[in-house]
Specification:
Layout lengths: L41 E7 H11 L3 E7 L13 H8 L3 E4 L6 H10 L4 E4 H5 L27 H18 L4 H28 L4 E4 L5 H6 L3 E2 L3 H8 L6 H9 L8 E5 L5 H12 L4 E4 L10 H17 L2
Parallel strand pairs: 1-2, 1-3, 3-4, 5-6, 5-7, 7-8
């Protein structure tokens, strides 16, 4: 589902000229792009630390990764770029972002930078976005059937690793084989996560769950679970609005009449409404698993983070 939060992802007028990169902002510009065969690492800029951790896994010590959003308390949907961010993008060899309306500020930064880094738009790479009608200006973010939280789609993450290796190898042919090897190792670990998801579906086929937002939607699908949340509820929370009273009541009823087996809550966008739903789950002894959109404090590894979230879902359904 699309994010349309008030005031989010706005294009700052300051980005109309790259001369802003020279303004005093307190931000350090990204390291210059490396030339093939040099000892300097390639500069990689990502929208969030989730993608930054994937880029680091593939690039190893041959990349210097900057994630513009790395605060676990931050809401990525409301991030406003700075002139310092524009300077980082302008100096990058590779830019990696989610796309699909999730982090539009990155696309604007690339367009306004005047530079030509390699760019990976995960939405375009994934093949999961619905096709745009010929001659239409409709973006994937405008299609309510599209879930843009693509880092929860493990097959997509494997595609991202391959593309990072390819783009880094083009920028630094000397280390191309190393990037490919790192990507293969990373993809193997992701494959283990896919096996974990499938094990959930085997143990709890079709288990009914509720979610506050579509953030973990790909995990829910891959695990063979059934999301019974009223779509109007998760859409309202996603858009930072209050759901209609009748819709909220339908959601609360999920914990009283034929209760769901699990509530998955996005910890980074908790509101009085989601707190009310969480309290209803707790009152009904329905386990609650909290997920996030960026890496938690103290965690800098995608595999560790995503593995812990999959394990939390499995443990909650297992009653452990």
């Amino acid at each position: 589902m699309p994010f349309r939060r008030s005031g989010v992802l706005t294009a700052l007028a300051a980005f109309t000229a790259l001369s802003l990169a020279g303004c005093g902002s307190g931000n350090t510009p990204a390291a210059p792009s490396a030339t093939p065969g040099s000892d300097a690492p390639l500069s990689v800029v990502t929208s969030t630390n989730v993608y930054g951790s994937i880029a680091q896994a593939v690039g190893g010590d041959r990349v210097a990764v900057t994630s513009l959003i790395n605060d676990p308390a931050a809401d990525p949907h409301s991030y406003e770029s700075t002139p310092g961010d524009a300077a980082k993008v302008a100096g990058a060899s590779l830019v990696l972002y989610n796309g699909g309306g999730y982090d539009d500020f990155m696309e604007r930064l690339v367009q306004s930078s005047g530079a030509k880094p390699s760019v990976i738009n995960v939405t375009q790479l994934s093949g999961l976005a619905p096709p745009e009608p010929a001659g239409s200006d409709t973006a994937p973010a405008d299609d309510p059937s599209f879930n843009e939280h693509l880092w929860y789609s493990l097959p997509t993450v494997q595609k991202v690793a391959d593309q990072i290796a390819s783009d880094l190898g083009t920028a630094d042919p000397t280390d191309a084989a190393r990037f490919t090897s790192n990507a293969q190792a990373f993809k193997g670990k992701v494959a283990d996560l896919i096996t974990k998801e499938q094990a959930i579906g085997t143990a709890h086929p079709g288990a009914r769950v509720a979610i506050t937002e579509p953030v973990p939607g790909y995990l829910v699908q891959a695990a063979g679970l059934t999301d019974v949340t009223p779509p109007a509820f998760s859409e309202a929370i996603e858009e930072d609005t209050d759901p209609p009273a009748a819709v909220l009541q339908q959601t609360l009823d999920l914990f009283t009449t034929n209760p769901v087996q699990l509530l998955i809550l996005n910890a980074q966008t908790e509101t009085p409404t989601t707190t009310q739903v969480e309290q209803a789950a707790q009152a009904a002894n329905v386990p609650v698993v909290k997920v996030t959109e960026t890496l938690p404090a103290g965690v800098n590894d995608y595999i560790t983070w995503m593995g812990s979230e999959i394990d939390a879902v499995a443990n909650a359904l297992n009653g452990s």
